[in-house]
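thread: overnight batch results

M.L. [08:02]
morning all. the overnight job finished for the chain we discussed friday. pasting input first so we're all looking at the same thing
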Amino acid sequence: MAERIYTVEEHGPRIDAFLRTVIGHMGLELDFTIDTGDNPHPDIEDPELVVRFTGPDVQLLLANKAELLLALEYLTMEMLRMPSEHHERLCFDANDHRMLRIAELRLSAQTAAERVKRSKVPFRFSPMSSRERRIIHLALRHDTEVRSESSGVGPHRQVVIYPAGMPTPPEPPRPPISRTSANRGPGARKSKSGSAGERDLGPRAGSQERTGSRTRRFRDRGAGKAEGSKSGPTSPAGGARARSGISKGGESKSRKGSRGPKPGAEEGTSQS
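M.L. [08:03]
and the structure it wrote out:
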């Protein structure tokens, strides 16, 4: 690069203050230095400033494909208000991770290009950042038998390697995001028709009415048992007779009278 825009003298103190504040809140044991960029691959990546991390927790920065290291790098770029075309001028590194990653990407690009030459089938890389996609493109820029293009949108953007004579196919449409699935909360459930998003509002009105009538029947039955217990203990048969209108002592007087005269009574009447 002919002209340096970011220098240690001008931007170093701002980067130092910002990183010490962020690392202090994170509670990590890390140290770092801010140096002028020096890169053995200036044709691929030639940063003006390099921030190198050391310390006991440096492995946490490199975990999960250096996700935390890249996040700190991005936050620092936002703090400096760097435009996207200047992102390659700042580089965060730890244990020479950047150099190893560049070598890995270059090797992956060459391997994928050889595969496309043999099979004549396009090859898609996993989604990656714009800086890593640039490394893939630059690694294949002199190969006349294949070409590389970026495909996708946002975090799903990826590099695709095509045979040189193959036209670029149209990108498949992205599936729409369902509002029902997006707004589904923890209390949502599926209805009988299969649609989601209904809230579980408790039992229905009909079940409440049936439950209420059943409760009233149990209450009336309990009240009848309580009245029967006040008059004294009864046997199961006596309780059945009490419910049918028969007295405890046996048959009622009306039923005794309706049976007719006894055989002995009839003979006494006829003799007289």
